[in-house]
């Protein structure tokens, strides 16, 4: 006979090691460029973020699993795409030419201006956007915390836990706020809205399909590998 009468539930009380969607305070430990799997010429700008110090009891991820001597993160960490969509060369419907590298440079400049390091960024000269990102990563890693609005897409891990692919929310012309700003100017950052800034089809994915011709509302999110951890923040 099963009963929960004498069953005690003990909470670990541990602070999660990773960032979740929301308004957060975090610094940039570095930036990288990641190719889109279906189009290697298209790139994502990925921010390696670390939140505020969680205290002496918190054991964060290693900054670099191959170099444990660099220590562990003192705050929650996450890899956050600057945009949900990749950067690529394209021509708009009106015939306007959009250059991938120019888009990436503009967004890196926006980060540098928020951090107060635009002058240092302007000193960089590089032959490729990949080389520029490597140099810019060192400039943006200045230890200054910014206030962010982080969105994402939810997915279910094999163990049944919900996790998120993180990215900055899509630009909305109807609002005057930004996705990040200095702590002194945090009022300029978009207030987080779960319903607007998080795509979550995990419940729908578990619903039984009824009727012929039923199609999912959105494609399933690609899960991270089982061995994935948000380590490897090159300092």
Helix and strand arrangement:
Blueprint: E1 22-36, E2 39-51, E3 77-81, E4 90-91, E5 97-98, H1 100-115, H2 118-122, H3 129-140, E6 145-156, E7 162-167, E8 180-182, H4 194-197, E9 198-199, H5 202-205
Parallel strand pairs: 3-7, 6-9
Antiparallel strand pairs: 1-2, 1-6, 2-3, 4-5, 6-7, 6-8
Helix pairs in contact: 1-3
Which whole number gives the mean pLDDT? 85
Low-confidence stretches: 8-12, 207-223, 230-235
Helical coverage, percent range: 10-25%
As laid out across the biggest beta sheet, the strand order is: 1-2-3-7-6
Explain what the structure shows.
By secondary structure, the protein is of the alpha+beta class. The protein has one domain. The protein is 17% helix and 26% strand. The chain contains five helices and nine strands. It has helices spanning 100-115, 118-122, 129-140, 194-197, 202-205, and strands at 22-36, 39-51, 77-81, 90-91, 97-98, 145-156, 162-167, 180-182, 198-199. The strands form two sheets. Strands 1-2-3-7-6 form a five-stranded mixed beta barrel. A two-stranded antiparallel ribbon has the order 4-5. Helix 1 (100-115) runs parallel beside helix 3. The longest helix has 16 residues, at 100-115. It is globular, with a radius of gyration of 20 Å. Residues 8-12, 207-223 and 230-235 have low confidence and may be disordered.
Brief synopsis:
By secondary structure, this protein is an alpha+beta fold. 17% of the residues lie in helices and 26% in strands.
